[in-house]
Design brief:
α5 runs antiparallel to α10. It is globular, with a radius of gyration of 32 Å. The protein folds into three domains: 78 residues, no CATH class; 289 residues, Rhodopsin 7-helix transmembrane proteins (Rhopdopsin 7-helix transmembrane proteins, Up-down Bundle); 74 residues, no CATH class. By secondary structure, it is mainly alpha-helical. Strands 5-6-9 form a three-stranded antiparallel β-sheet, with no helix packed on it. A two-stranded antiparallel sheet has the order 1-2. Strands 3-4 form a two-stranded antiparallel sheet. 63% of the residues lie in helices and 8% in strands. InterPro entries: GPCR_Rhodpsn (IPR000276), GPCR_Rhodpsn_7TM (IPR017452), Neurokn_rcpt (IPR001681), NK3_rcpt (IPR001013). This is Neuromedin-K receptor. It is found in: Cell membrane. It comes from Sarcophilus harrisii.
């Protein structure tokens, strides 16, 4: 095929200075020549661009679909008149490199610290936090393995990383994004069940692991076509990495629409509905039941967690919306890929999408005191970071232990039982027993008696139909 391209290039160069009529005849003869040589129109477009017979164009580099398409060919031009409009000055490349490097650094280290905070402290190992571990792992992996690689490819329009990494590069982003957003969806559903149906059984550790495993399996299945149809093409002057679908660009565009629905529209719809119901319940009025201080403490904790997760979801939605819109529009109007400023627009939109991987640790730090204590502990070596005894207690003291398969939580705490000793009372008399029982009831309700002597009791166990505040991180 390369021999044909070489001969075809010489042929076009020989007639490039001919009249307009000759050029039109040449254009009409191209499809027949391509068909006779067994070369698809898309391959011809890419190869001829390298030979200098098509005006330079930027491929649509889709993180969720490889190269969606190349731009449609413009009129044939002499090689001497061609310039690459997407070559950037050094200062602009340096600024983009700094911006993308910041995203990768914050996303990787921030999410790794989140994982450490949860896994290294028993108090943090809750159902919600296990899903946050999955979310953090997905974001860190995306930033580490795909962000800079895609940036370099978009910047230079040259694939430097080999055929195997090309398959991984087109396969893993869909997997990671799917795992991220469905981890958030699982958290939303779990919060919905915990708050709207508090008496129904909660997720066990085993069920949580099964859900996380199922999320990754579905993610692999959705992204598998990207791996199957990925290929590299070595061309004069550069190498391309893209996805070549059997039925061409239309099939690729259809796949991208399916991916957009599954990893953006549908989960956001589910989370929108669940958090609307939960928000109405938490902020719209009191939940029927206990009106004690413990109840209000739990209600306040629930509101904080729901507020934090809503911010996480909204941030994700804002960051990824321009990305999906961009590829839908350029998939329909492919001539936009030849626009002078399209590369800068793509790099901006892609940076915004990738920046979603670095915001979550920042949100956790700002809105959750236990994650804030964990970050302080992780950076305790910094001279301006001080870990207080309160921070240590936030991460290490565990007082609330959830019973298995139940929303009723066993609360363990040391109580003080006040017993009034009267030497004139007979220990076996009814009045003495009544005094002891009354004193015990007062102690359990938080009362005290300054004139009484105190005796320590064994741990008492009480149950509450509401989830303890500790369950919310």
């Amino acid at each position: 095929m390369m021999e044909f391209i070489s001969e075809f290039t010489n042929w076009t160069e020989g007639v490039s200075g001919s009249s307009t009529t000759d050029s039109e005849n040449l254009s009409s003869a191209v499809p027949g020549a391509l068909e006779a040589a067994g070369i698809s129109r898309g391959d011809w477009m890419q190869l001829m661009a390298q030979e200098g017979n098509l005006s330079s164009a930027l491929p649509s580099l889709d993180l969720l679909g490889g190269v969606l398409s190349t731009t449609s060919p413009g009129p044939l031009q002499p090689t001497a008149n061609l310039t690459n409009q997407f070559v950037q000055p050094s200062w602009r490349i340096a600024l983009w490199s700094l911006a993308y490097g910041m995203v990768v650094a914050v996303a990787v280290f921030g999410n790794l610290i989140v994982i450490w905070i949860i896994l290294a402290h028993k108090r943090m190992r809750t159902v919600t936090n296990y899903f946050l571990v999955n979310l953090a792992f997905s974001d860190a992996s995306m930033a580490a393995f795909n962000t800079l690689v895609n940036f370099i490819y978009a910047l230079h329009n040259e694939w430097y990383f080999g055929a195997n990494y090309c398959r991984f590069h087109n396969f893993f982003p869909i997997t990671a994004v799917f795992a991220s957003i469905y981890s958030m969806t699982a958290i939303a559903v779990d919060r919905y069940m915990a708050i709207i149906h508090p008496l129904k059984p909660r997720l066990s550790a085993t069920a949580t692991k099964v859900i996380i495993g199922s999320i990754w399996i579905l993610a692999f299945l959705l992204a598998f076509p990207q791996c199957l149809y990925s290929k590299t093409k070595v061309m004069p002057g550069r190498t391309l990495c893209y996805v070549q679908w059997p039925k061409g660009p239309k099939q690729n565009f259809t796949y991208h629409i399916v991916v957009t629905v599954l990893v953006y529209c549908f989960p956001l719809l589910v989370m929108g509905i669940t958090y609307t119901i939960v928000g109405t319940t938490l902020w719209g009025g009191e939940i029927p039941g206990d009106t004690s201080d413990r109840y209000h403490e739990q209600l306040k904790a629930k509101r904080k967690v729901v507020k934090m997760m809503i911010i996480v979801v909204v941030t994700f939605a804002i960051c990824w919306l321009p990305y999906h819109v961009y590829f839908i529009i350029t998939g329909i109007y492919q001539h936009l890929n030849r626009w002078k400023y399209i590369q800068q627009i793509y790099l901006t939109i892609f940076w915004l999408a990738m920046s979603s991987t670095m915001y979550n640790p920042i949100i956790y730090y700002c809105l959750n005191k236990r994650f804030r204590a964990g970050f302080k502990r992780a950076f305790h070596w910094c001279p301006f970071i001080e870990v207080s005894s309160y921070d240590e207690l936030e991460l290490n003291v565990t007082r609330f232990h959830p019973t298995r398969q139940s929303s009723l939580y066993t609360v363990t705490r040391m109580e003080s039982m006040n017993v009034v000793f009267n030497p004139n009372d007979d220990p076996n008399s009814k009045s003495t027993r009544k005094k002891k029982e009354a004193s015990r009831d007062t102690s359990f309700n938080g009362g005290s008696n300054k004139n009484s002597k105190s005796a320590s009791t064994s741990s008492s166990f009480i149950t509450s139909p509401y989830i303890s505040a500790d369950e919310y991180f």
